[in-house]
Amino acid sequence: MRRFGLAACVALVGLLGQAGLAQQPAPGHPDAPDGQALFTGQQPLPAHLRNQDIALPPVATRCVNCHLVRAPDKQDGRLAAQSLGPVLDAAFLLTSQPRHGGPATAYAEGSFCRVLRTSVAPSDIVIAQAMPQFDIADAQCQALWHYLTAPRAHAKPQP
Ligand code: HEC
Description:
Strand order of the largest sheet: 1-4
Bound molecules: heme C
Strand content: 5-15%
Largest sheet: 2 strands, antiparallel
Order of helices and strands: HHEHHHEEHEH
Structural class: mainly alpha
Helix content: 40-55%
Number of helices: 7
Shape: globular
Oligomer: single chain
């Protein structure tokens, strides 16, 4: 009986492993998670508002609707005014700073994925409901994180 249990367990792990591989195409494959495509909604992400079961239409869940990566020119008030949520870039995410009226925290990949899925910030504060909760796979979240925290060649130096 014990041997059977072990064999079943090994078989299950094998199956899960295959399923996992099937969900995560190799980098470069058209279906591979692409941080920029996820950010702009070219690769849509299912999402809903906190405490609501209704799936939001894909066009409403695009990060770029509410977050700018970095205004190419900080003087451009029009671009700044469009950002409902904070501008998401390496400086914002990786610098330890007070957030949401709580203590200073920085984001890491794990806490970034957690806030996307659960609305809970690194300080354990629950962020505003306007920010949707995403049904996002680990590989997609990782791709987004790398895209947002990568140094940007086009970004102008900060004053
Ligand atoms: C409908 C608008 C909207 C969309 C779509 C949206 N966000 Fe947000 N997001 C917000 C708002 C508003 C906040 C600020 C919440 C707060 O400060 O309480 C926020 C906060 C965040 C934070 C936390 C920032 C902090 O201050 O701690 C992260 C990270 C984030 N969003 C990432 C994303 C990503 C990645 C996507 C796309 C997958 C996305 N958001 C899509 C509106 C949106």
